[in-house]
Structure prediction request, 333 residues.
Amino acid sequence: MTSSKKRILTGIRPTGPLHLGHYAGALENWLRLQEEYECFFLIADYQVSDYADDIDLVRKAVFEVALDWLAVGLDPERSHFHIESLIPEHAELTLWLSWYVPLARLQRNPTLKAEMESFETKSVPVAFFTYPVMQVANILMPKAHLVPVGEDQLPHIEMTREVARRFNRLFGEVFPEPEALVGRVPRLVGLDGNAKMSKSLKNAIYLKDDAETVTKKVKRMFTDPTRIHATDPGHVEGNPVFMYHDAFNPNEAEVQDLKERYVKGTVGDVEVKEKLALALNAFLDPIRERRAHYEARPKLVREALAAGTSHAKKVAEGTMAEVRAALRLNYLE
Ligand code: TRP
Prediction:
């Protein structure tokens, strides 16, 4: 089953259910590109920093992620859903590639810097420096041409390009230099107005939230803080409620009308939020339906992961054979 299509590799760490930020920043592109590319969708369990704290949580999250993928319409018949640690070639390639990444390069990586802040300097695990290299290995493993991701991942993709160039120069042309592709909404604001929707900030709407939960979350959402009464002229720019309308309400005329009335002070936050909750629930309904279908059939989820992992493992073995040949590890032949 080798395909002549160009390849995508992208992935997510199994840390919990996926939210609207994942959808608008990345998943939407994955869905769109499934026809055109052969897609490798990776569940990166080697790269979860709190693994030892709660193995059960990671195990659960592996299935949560797969369920969310199926729910949004990613198709395991066409795309390969795979689990990283079941393909130890990723670890082997990481080790070789780590010789070609200067430590200073990693220390400058802004995404990494932000993540390390939760650790005392003295207790930052070495894995914080190896996991971005592992991400490089993930992408190079199927020789991906395109990596659709959220904006925060761009420094890692840039590093992937550098490592591919360096490896090819030293050992011969093995890897293509992949391009990054960021979604329609590169960084979705949180419900609380924080620059980023994220699980750890507790400001997310999950793809699996039921209608009532979504409506409640929208009611409590951060809006224009300068507006006290519904008759005060309001601000649309930078207002999370309108950012979500722009991102998820397909009824442009309704959004335009709400914005005009908001600025004039002739519509209250209550109505703007009610309409947003309706739009979000209409968007999430088909996702919820597909999720329920697979939730009731866990065997299908396991089979999707097993088939994808088995295919990705074969591809990885092929690449590693080339890498070993390029590095001339055939000592005993
Ligand atoms: N680091 C990514 C995240 O935190 C997950 C990931 C692992 C990834 N390997 C990848 C993304 C390869 C793109 C390509 O979500």
